Amino acid sequence: MKRPSLYIILIAAFLIQLLFLDHIKIMGAKPDLLVILVVFFAIFFGPGAGAEAGFVAGLFKDVYSLDIFGVNSVLLSLVGLIVGALSPNIFKESKLTQGLIVFVSSVLCMISHYFVSAIILKITYITLPEYLCNLILPSSLYTAILSLLLFPILISRYRLKEIAEYL
Amino acid sequence: MRNKKKRIILTILAVVIAVILVVSISSAARLARINITDTSTPILKSLRSFFELLEKITPFAAIEEENKILHERVDLLTRIQVETLAVSDENARLRNLLDFRKMIPYTSIPAQVIGRDPSNWSNSLIIDKGTLSGIKTNMAVISTRGLVGRIVETGKLSSKALLITDPNIKVGVLIRRNRQGGILIGMPGGRCKIIYIPLDSDVRPGDKVMTAGLGSIFPKGILIGGIEKVGREEGRLYKYAILKPSQDLSRLEEVLCIIR
Fold first, then answer.
1. Is the minimum CB–CB distance between A44 and chain B shorter than 8 Å?
2. pTM of the entire structure?
3. CA-CA 20 to 30 A from B150: which of A156, B16, B50, B204?
């Protein structure tokens, strides 16, 4: 995989997330295109590419949001690294598996984010179950559903079906 | 040598002409010609039909070309109409904002929303005004429909505002009907939560909530939204209320930053 291609796709997804994604919010939940991309690069190109994509995507988020700086870079890098490390044991062709990995990655990433925020910012007014019901589960589900549409496009873009080692 | 060649060619030509003349006047030759013509008739008919069809199609082709041009014009005019409507909408919104700006008793700086929080975790807006335009941290941000949030980070040309739906925000609020106070915090999912409401207070769904004016950030009396649900926190000595903001914060396009 060419590095510029990874960065171009990440930048495009980031711009969409920054400018348009709030318009497709459903009940306060919006999908996370960057998580989808990080999981995609991790599954199909291994832990190195996954971590790299995670770091870059997280850095974009950190720079443009009011979140704790660095938390997104670290968490998304870890997601890329872990999913990439597990990818040889995953049946990558299955759409269900792809969606499930995106869902679990998003949920774990956001739960970890909750604990980091709770420790650093000492937010105690909102409990984890409230976060789970109102944000984590709806957003992760939305992201997973969107990944089912995006993965085939990305697989076709990278011509992965023509390269046997990836599938 | 050359004369010999010329002679041979002339002889061959003469023989061919003679054969043609002989064949053309004989009945066998005529019969052969008719048969050949007959045999070729279906092919000729088909060719004629094909050319007739071409003659018929040609005007359609012209019409099709005209149709294409008209379609392009319709598309262009539709686009212009949509763009005009968008400009008209923007004009109406800005006029609304300007009227509102004149109405409110604070000096304010209008700004446009140029980006939104890419993270799912925090809720913020990026606006197109920064320190060069007079924006400072902790300025209250409002819209024509109520409180939006406060400025948290400022650059020279842009700033970031924390929305009232972000868990890191805290706003002192009053319930308009009974003047009961509380603290508003942001909640995931586009809602807010009012905490520290005394257990004996009369708070109902539908009550309007506004800023209390405590502290130095938010002026008093700015509408925030309406209460959706009231509940009691387990193990705590106060009630809570879930509030729906008076506007969809994910669709804001223009805001006002209040200078106090």
1. no
2. 0.71
3. B204
